């Protein structure tokens, strides 16, 4: 029959075929066609087409869509016998094809385990600080400067001594305020002195936060000035038991030169702080204890501690903020004027409130200054991403393998349909199989989680436990995960398999229709994810190596740093003399303790912010940093300690000096002027995550040192350390002795990078592994399916290599296609990530090539095993059957 | 009297099927009804009515031969069942009965 050139619209016909019940569709289509021909003759082709469409759309009605009921009765899908049958058949098929089941169970259980770990992690992250009974009414006082032009800057979460009590007194909605200040104290136990972090808090601490006490009265525990609440851990450590109420601890302020050890009475023992708490304490003492500091701190502008407040339930927060600022502006009026007159400060300070539970994941106002475990929400996203990737890849394996394997089961499906199995029954059957596999995977996953939890905790810096699982929300989450995975993995195969036409499966050799685009694209997706992660890992790796291997501009080898608070010039001199008695000690150089920053005027009106270092003439030679211009400090110039400073190259650049020697640095608020005598070569005095900034060195005698550097000869670590320790305890018997190696210290700065490197590595290895076992399964099935073809080819004289190449190249092509998608994505992602680092590696083509090579090699090894095996098979065997 | 409900449109379709005497199928029915009643009928309405009639057991259908003008598809040919015939008969009787009871039959002044 010649096809009529005047055809009705194909799309409309398709639509009709799709919507109309099968027993109706032929006569409806026929009628419409006939009418179309009639209309075409009458009113022309265009109008006839339009007419056809109108008529076709008229058939979108339930009446035509409704399928004819089967005249034969069918067993109820969920009948008792059928359920048993589903499981029997599922068990038989699964145990019959072990490779397939194994691949699926392993893949799924790794995917599920990863997802479970991440669920645990995220649960912990979002539940941070949620356990306090006063939530959501706890807030932290924050502040911000607003310039005269309305610009917002200087966001900060720190407050001073005054803010808490003043605001609590002036704003009735504030029920309690508590100040929280972390401070190092020396604690004496027998002859041993330890430096411990002690928190000074108001006595309202336990009224605000729900930290249960094992013994002691929370209301009165911190009322007396010489009382201390200790954690159960510390009670065990110091006294050997937890029953320690009324016992005394000897403590002294480590920063206060004149402080003595004083007895503190234990008034409470606190339970260990929960792991998801920003406040973790071992020692709590009343904040009023330190009188010296109190006096110095009666100042609105000192900011060095955290203040938390509890608002009355249902309070309007912005109203409280307004009232707080009214109190501040009234009470600090004189002080603000004074500062404005003295320093020319015109910025206005505004106080705000930050919900307590938001601190943990806040990017602008993190939980710091005595608050712990602040975390970057970015890391949660990365972790979730990796877990989703792994789970997706495992599900893809499932879909791919099940569909590919379905050809072998086509006959089974045909027989089931012929003897009366309905489509729904088949869907239930296949979904049942996928759920059975998923259940096995789930049980394995639980075991895996338990097994890997310690490692994960270490990497993610958490103390998660499997007992966390016993939480109704989390259990619901896992059930959801389980069902989602079962459905995701099983739904598509069930749909495809149940749709097979029994006539075709029983009479013809079954072939999947089309080129099997689904399988192709899923494999491409898998390898896109895998290559993306490989590139990411390689980049993180090279960035990490770059950071730890980069020349810091000074020599940190065999360099020891020992902390000593309030080290005076005389003490430092004595110490140096004592230490240098050991010939293994090359040099000793005292230095200021923490990181000091200050500002001064340089050349006219330019004001510069810089790092402020107090050193002595030995310091620069000890860390081997050269002077590039001028001279070092020297004892030969007595004026050095009073009038001279050294600056680094960045300082010179930012000050805009052509000839730096002899320039004046004006500490205008102190009325002190210094002369630059030398320029120090730039070196990385902070971590490489920061750019080198301006640095200034002084020998001002009033500044005390906080630690000293000791350079020792290589290989003499143990004798030198013993000598340093002995000298230290001889000279400073009442100070705790701690030392560290500077190169270790420098490495530690990149701990978070090191951890994320490892997590990425794990994720990548798992992803590649699961992708590859999927590929392995596909290759196996494809080789099986093509047994006859291979047999024929061999009989016709094809070589083993050519056949192996034939089978392998199909999959390798897909892997190569995946690079097209992975490369741009990875480039974008790593470029963005590297922007965070001022000192970074370049995105290089080599990384991409390496990743590509790795993916291809791994995929090749995976596939070639099966291909070679198939190619080596004896063709007589494969061709004789059937 | 217990009789099946027959809509006005269904009645027309059923009568037309009867009139076409075994040659009734979708397109022909549309054209015939359009011609006889002067109203435009769409195919899906005809098919819908035929399906209802078939469900009620008033028509039965058989597949005819495929023809070229139908794109090689077969016709579904409808014929009236005995039950359908009886129903039509009853409808007619009711109408005639009612007409006969008119005391003053209408006299239309102008034949439109």
Automatic annotation (TrEMBL), chain A:
Q: Where are the transmembrane segments?
A: 99-121, 379-403, 424-449, 475-497, 517-540, 759-781, 811-830, 850-872
Which UniProt keywords are listed? Cell membrane, Membrane, Transmembrane, Transmembrane helix
What is the name of this protein? ABC transporter permease
- Per UniProt, residues of the MacB-like periplasmic core domain are 101-324, 522-685
> Per UniProt, what is one GO molecular function of this protein?
transmembrane transporter activity
Looking at the record, the residues that make up the ABC3 transporter permease C-terminal domain are 386-500, 763-875
Q: One Pfam family, short name please?
A: MacB_PCD
Q: Write down the NCBIfam families for this protein, in alphabetical order.
A: perm_prefix_2 (NF038404)
Primary subcellular site in the record, as a coarse category: membrane
State its location(s): Cell membrane
Q: Which GO terms describe its cellular component?
A: plasma membrane
Q: How does it sit in the membrane?
A: Multi-pass membrane protein
Q: What superkingdom heads the lineage?
A: Bacteria
Q: Which chain positions lie within coiled-coil regions?
A: none
Automatic annotation (TrEMBL), chain B:
In which domain of life is the source organism classified? Bacteria
Q: Where is the Transcription regulator PadR N-terminal domain?
A: 17-90
Q: What is this protein called?
A: Helix-turn-helix transcriptional regulator
Q: What is the lineage of its organism?
A: Bacteria, Pseudomonadati, Bacteroidota, Cytophagia, Cytophagales
